[in-house]
Design a protein that fits this description.
The complex is a heterodimer of chains A (258) and B (231). Chain A has 258 residues and is an all-alpha fold. Chain A has 13 helices and no strands. In chain B, strand 6, helix 5 and strand 7 form a beta-alpha-beta unit. In chain B, helix 2 packs across helix 3, helix 2 packs across helix 4 and helix 4 packs parallel to helix 5. The chains are: A mainly alpha (258), B alpha/beta (231).
Chain lengths: 258, 231
């Protein structure tokens, strides 16, 4: 009401840049952690599955990267945004800022870092993978679909946590379940029974990971119908949550102050 | 055209706190409050601690919604003056001044234009590009106050922030804020200092246990308030 839309966008972008800088200045290796953290996590999975358990085959490291990197983006964005309104309580109690500002700030912060991670991921796959083809261009649509899904789910979890602080534990459990159930370190085609595979792919993250691999490793265009379905689902959820936040905006300040 | 920038009709605000899994306690912070704020006036708000003064400012600034009643704004920009709003200790004084000014309602280009003035007023010239985690509390308050002083809004809400810092800076800050309050700006000022209320306000609103006890000229309200406190 008191801040124009242009002003809000200006505040959002300035805060986004400052938050990225602030986050990086808290550690010795600064911005390098944006790449080091996912690289280390992929390395751990590789050591466990490819070396100790002798699983995977040729290009297993690329297979892991195509699963783990998109999962990490999803998981970090959702976990961070679930706490975003509570973490912003200082600001919320001093200025009339739309509450959607807080989860969206987290989502865009993580998305900005992810652009750099993806750039390195593509170079990595180019070097260790199965080559490059024009099909790679279509990965942009997979990334955008995932971004929409992250926006939608972030809005939902950020709206619930201030009412139900215990929800953060469920988010953590859900992320663990998603890590195990999205085919990050196994191929669903080899592990899941054929009659259950369609059910498995109803998990949007599993479907997205399948599409990343399809494009980047198999040089096949993504499953447009699946991407369209996830986009539609996300857009409907975004619309519903935007209306919800508009109607309940002033509730949150008292909720996080109590 | 109305000369009231804001109208409150029968406004009530309740806080809910959890006692056990299903049981909650309710506390009424504002109870059936009605009044208007006139354009260009300085309205003082007095009352003992816990009487609902800060809650009232949060309702006026649209940070809190109301449980009952109606708040009608006849102005577009209302800002609650907060020191060091949105400060991040990892950022420099300059960066914090920019983001804090923007969160207080300023446009980036205006804040960048006013930045030299902010730096001079805060007396932080040599420290302004250092992270604020290296500042003392006093330095942070000086910067926060200097930013808040440049804030422009149709209605400014002030909650006990007339003076900060050490003796000399405090006097300078009080004088600067008093000048701002005495201008044509519409202001709601919460203060425990009866001297400030008497000197700066056109009308005074007295809150007691969340209810509006009285709203009138400073002389009348302060006389009755003092009588009430001393009786």
């Amino acid at each position: 009401m008191f801040i124009s839309r242009t002003h809000l966008v200006e505040v959002f972008l300035t805060k986004l840049i400052f938050n990225l800088k602030s986050e990086a200045s808290k550690t010795y290796l600064s911005y390098a952690w944006w790449l080091l953290e996912p690289a280390l996590l992929v390395a751990v999975l590789y050591v466990v599955f490819a070396i100790f358990l002798s699983r995977g085959g040729p290009h297993f490291i690329v297979f892991l990267v195509c699963g783990k990197i998109p999962f990490l983006w999803f998981s970090k964005s959702i976990t961070n945004s679930s706490r975003s309104i509570i973490a912003g309580r200082g600001l919320i109690n001093q200025a009339a800022i739309p509450k959607l500002f807080f989860p969206m700030l987290v989502v865009f912060q993580d998305a900005f870092k992810q652009v750099i991670v993806f750039a390195f991921m593509f170079v990595f796959i180019l070097y260790f993978g199965t080559g490059i083809s024009w099909v790679w261009v279509s990965v942009v649509f997979v990334i955008l679909t995932q971004f929409l899904l992250i926006c939608a789910v972030s809005m939902v979890v950020s709206a619930i946590t201030p009412f139900l602080p215990d929800f953060k534990y469920l988010v953590a459990t859900a992320m663990m379940a998603l890590m195990l159930g999205s085919g990050i370190f196994y191929s669903y085609k080899d592990v899941i029974l054929p009659r259950h595979q369609r059910l498995f792919l109803l998990n949007p993250l599993a479907n997205l990971i399948k599409n990343y691999r399809q494009v980047l490793m198999e040089h096949t265009l993504p499953d447009w119908a699946a991407l369209g379905g996830i986009c539609l689902f996300s857009l409907v959820l975004i619309a519903v949550m935007t209306i919800y936040f508009r109607k309940t905006d002033t509730i949150y300040a008292r909720l996080v102050a109590q | 055209m109305s000369t009231d920038v804001m109208e409150l009709s029968n406004v009530s605000v309740r806080y809910k706190s959890r006692k056990s899994f299903f049981r909650h306690d309710y506390f009424t912070a504002l109870d059936d409050i009605s009044f208007t704020i006139r354009k260009g006036e300085t309205l003082g708000v007095i009352g003992p601690n816990g009487c609902g003064k800060s809650t009232l400012l949060k309702v006026l600034s649209n940070i809190y919604g109301v449980d009952e009643g109606v708040v009608k704004w006849n102005c577009r920009r209302v800002s609650l003056l907060s020191l060091a709003l949105g400060f991040d200790v990892e950022l420099t004084g300059r960066e914090n001044a920019v983001i804090s000014g923007m969160l207080l309602g300023g446009r980036k280009r205006d804040i960048l234009r006013k930045l030299p003035e902010i730096i001079v007023f805060s007396e932080l010239e040599e420290f302004i590009d250092k992270p604020t985690k290296t500042y003392s509390n006093g330095m942070r308050s000086r910067l926060g106050f200097s930013v808040a002083l440049t804030m422009q809004a149709e209605l400014i809400l002030i909650d006990e922030v007339l003076g900060v810092g050490d003796g000399r800076f405090r006097q300078k800050a009080e004088e600067a804020m008093s000048r701002k309050i005495q201008s044509d700006q519409t202001i709601v000022l919460v203060s425990h200092s009866m001297g400030q209320i008497r000197d700066l306000c056109d009308r005074v609103l007295w809150l007691h246990h969340g209810k509006l006890k009285m709203i009138d000229t400073p002389d009348k309200v302060l006389r009755d308030y003092n009588h009430f406190i001393n009786s």
